[in-house]
Specification:
By secondary structure, the chain is an alpha+beta fold. It has one domain: Fumarylacetoacetate hydrolase, domain 2, CATH 3.90.850. The chain contains four helices and 14 strands. The two termini are 27 Å apart.
């Protein structure tokens, strides 16, 4: 199982970090060890004091595919949830300033939280809304029709470079409002008002 992630898929988020709005999907990967197991909390690592939350919609791949045409892409995912792509922002900025790869800031152990799966039957006819609350206060919100690249475009693009396999995860990008997390906080992720992810920070 692999975790494929999309960066800068919302124009406002690209702008808030001073990045250019991309003309094609920005892709990076996380290893399976990035997933937070079971009901475990997120433990802030000791290598960066500035760990940011990034709430995202996550797709679950349901069949094997390669070079998938966009018009058929809806056949390749069968469930959705919310997830959090934790980012060691200080480390990321340091690595970027040196022109180095920034996997250490994105793919570290425990950097991917995952909510409860909700079955879906694409193609989707209504926009999906999602949000992140910290200690009961909404800090991020987004919806799929604000994405620069929609689900089917992402499936088609990713499958040009990577064979998609059943069980692969696709983190589809975060809206604006990213920010630091602190020990003792409670993060809750919602999809269309339904709580799918509840995660304490330790």
């Amino acid at each position: 199982m692999k975790i494929l992630c999309i960066g800068r898929n919302y124009a406002e988020h690209a702008s808030e970090l001073g990045n250019a709005v991309p003309s094609e999907p920005v892709v990076f990967l996380k290893p399976e060890t990035a997933l937070i197991p079971g009901r475990m909390p997120f433990f802030i690592p000791d290598f960066d004091s500035e760990i940011h939350h990034e709430i995202e919609l996550v797709l679950r791949v349901c069949r094997l595919g390669k070079h998938i045409e966009e018009r058929f892409a809806h056949r390749y995912y069968d469930a959705i949830t919310v997830g959090i792509d934790f980012t060691a922002r200080g480390l990321q900025n340091e690595l970027k300033s040196k022109g180095l790869p920034w996997e250490k800031s994105k793919a570290f152990d425990g950097s991917a939280a995952l909510g409860r799966w909700v079955p879906i039957a694409p193609p989707l006819t209504e926009p999906l809304h999602f949000a992140l609350e910290i200690d009961g206060r909404e800090v991020q919100k987004g919806q799929i029709d604000h994405m620069l690249f929609g689900f089917n475009r992402l499936i088609a693009e990713l499958s040009r470079y990577f064979t998609l396999k059943q069980g692969d995860l696709i983190y589809t990008g975060t809206p604006s409002g990213v920010g630091p997390v602190r020990k003792g906080q409670q993060l809750n992720g919602y999809l269309d008002g339904e709580l799918l992810l509840s995660l304490p920070i330790r």
